[in-house]
Specification:
60% of the residues lie in helices and 3% in strands. Helix 4 packs antiparallel against helix 5 and helix 5 crosses helix 8. The protein is built from eight helices and two strands; from the N terminus they run H-E-H-H-E-H-H-H-H-H. The protein is mainly alpha-helical. The chain is elongated.
């Protein structure tokens, strides 16, 4: 994946120099000001570095913006977000507590009730868990 290729120091985060190197590798040549703005966009928690989860979330939104037809590639990105940000137990399903923690990691500005309502909406079969398919459908709905 692009993230691991450019995490040169293996820290699990991309620092600004690594982001600049990554952009150069894909043919972009941003100014220092543009790179700073990109870091602010990617660094959702404001710690000065980009985690893989932050990168995957950005890539998902970027993919949606770039897609002109259908949702090719979107399911894969939603699956990564599911695995890396929300499915804390690694069991292939998200309970309401994992969902809330994931939303908080994404800096979602939602009330307690809104988070619970979103979970209930995503839990299509009423089983008390959200699977990858349900999660992908929710991401597609709220990203448009």
């Amino acid at each position: 994946m692009l993230f691991q290729q450019h995490d040169v120091d293996g820290s699990g985060h991309l620092e600004e120099a690594e982001v600049l190197h990554m952009l150069g590798a894909i043919g972009e040549d941003p100014t220092a000001a543009q790179a700073g703005k990109l870091m602010q966009l990617l660094d959702r928690d404001g710690d000065g570095k980009v985690s893989e989860a932050e990168f995957v979330l950005w890539a998902f939104h970027h993919q949606l913006e770039q897609a002109s037809k259908g949702h090719e590639g979107v399911e894969e990105l939603a699956g990564r977000i599911f695995d890396q940000v929300f499915d804390l137990g690694g069991d292939g399903k998200i309970d309401v507590n994992e969902f809330i923690v994931g939303l908080e990691r994404c800096k979602a500005d939602l009330s307690y009730d809104e988070k619970h309502e979103m979970f209930r909406e995503a839990d299509e079969n009423g089983g008390g868990f959200i699977d990858k398919h349900e999660f992908t459908e929710l991401m597609l709905k709220y990203s448009n």
